[in-house]
Write a structure and sequence with these properties.
The protein is α/β, with parallel strands linked by helices. Helices cover 33% and strands 27% of the residues. The chain has helices spanning 13-25, 76-83, 95-106, 121-124, 126-133, 157-166, 209-216, 231-242, 245-248, 251-258, 290-307, 325-331; strands at residues 4-8, 30-35, 44-46, 65-68, 87-90, 114-117, 140-149, 171-175, 178-182, 189-193, 198-204, 221-228, 267-275, 278-286, 313-316, 336-340. This is Saccharopine dehydrogenase.
Length: 341
């Protein structure tokens, strides 16, 4: 198989980090960058995901895998990959966008690509961590994802735009396989994090893991909650949602609210698993922040596609791995700490 990989959005925060980690670990890979404004014509290709005709240039470079790290609202890249038999890895989808993309895949009766969605929290690794921590003979009753987000961390534009567009829109969590409609930053719950973060007020948060863990992994009860490193900011956002302020704001104003990005900070999340054998917690800390962990996850998914014999078809990222492969890959990276309790 040719090791020609194209990262569309490869100049963005996460895309450029994928490029760095991928080349450091796999110097034999030929990695190209798709961008609207190429400068180095040896390693960069002019591509605009909103202009399907711009994708035709991909064919002349004999690309075997496209990594999508920029929003593609109309799924033009997904369709192009399927129609031309090119493998595809997407780490960008929000829950609504993921559902639309799955419908696109379903509309093709047959295809010769590996289509992979790594569109959960931190590159879609949460379901893989759940599977790594519980015996295959065990039955999982519930999973709760608790996210600590630092406003000092680096953040890409797509994350800010997602929050701005969806903060006032209801989404669902699952309880005993029943959908419960909720909104971001409501339903406060106290939680004590590890890694010295202590007690935090946690609020509703939407990630594709809700859908994947319930609909794909058949876990009946799934929820996600998050908190900011600033307790004041967290309380203000909860208050704004409670009193309907987000709903009255323009999209432009909401983007300003969520559009800040710092210089970098630690990223932490914890996964609470309740199974027939008892309760377990998986604690994850990225010293270099969420962009580094998301990019590393994308690189691990890429290496699985390039190095393993995986049949054509549609996959969620965690389905690329056997047993504890994903967990071991994450643990082997110097800035990532994972503990199981």
């Amino acid at each position: 198989m040719q090791n020609n990989i194209l990262i569309i959005g490869g100049k963005g925060l996460v895309g450029s980090t994928i490029h760095r980690i991928l080349k450091d670990r796999n110097p034999n890979y030929n990695v190209l960058v798709g961008t609207r404004s190429p400068k180095d014509l040896k390693s960069e290709i002019k591509i605009d995901v909103n202009t399907p005709s711009s994708l035709e240039v991909v064919l002349s470079h004999h690309i075997s895998l496209i990594i999508l790290s920029v929003n593609d609202t109309d799924d033009n890249v997904l369709r192009f990959a399927i129609e031309h038999g090119i493998d595809y890895l997407d780490i960008t989808k929000s829950t609504p966008a993921l559902n639309r993309a799955l419908q696109v895949v379903t509309s093709y009766p047959a295809f010769s690509s590996r289509i992979v969605f790594g569109s959960g929290w931190m590159g879609g690794i949460v379901p893989g961590l759940v599977k790594s921590s519980v015996s295959f003979t065990d039955t999982i009753d519930s999973v709760k994802l608790m996210v600590y987000y630092s406003i000092k961390d680096k953040a890409g534009e797509s994350s800010a735009h997602f929050m701005a567009e969806h903060v006032a829109t209801p989404f669902v969590r699952y309880e005993n396989n029943q959908t419960i409609e909720i909104k971001h930053f409501l339903d406060s719950e106290n939680y004590c994090f590890s890694f010295g973060l202590r007690n935090r007020q946690m609020y509703n948060f939407d990630t594709p893991d809700l859908y994947i863990l319930n609909q794909i992994e058949k876990i009946p009860t799934v929820s996600v909650k998050m908190t900011y490193n600033s307790k004041i900011v967290t309380k203000i956002l909860g208050w704004m949602q409670q009193y309907g302020i987000f709903k009255r704001m323009s999209l432009k104003t909401r983007r300003k609210v969520f559009g800040g990005s710092g210089d970098g900070d630690v990223s932490v999340f914890e996964v609470i698993i309740k199974a027939t054998s008892g309760a377990k917690r998986v604690l994850v800390k990225s010293d270099k922040g969420q962009a580094e962990l998301t990019a590393l996850s994308a690189v691990l998914h890429t290496e699985a596609l390039m190095n393993k014999s995986i049949a054509t078809g549609k996959y969620f990222a965690h389905e690329l791995y056997q047993s504890q492969e994903l967990l071991k890959g994450l643990q082997g990276y110097p800035s990532i700490t994972i503990k199981e309790i």
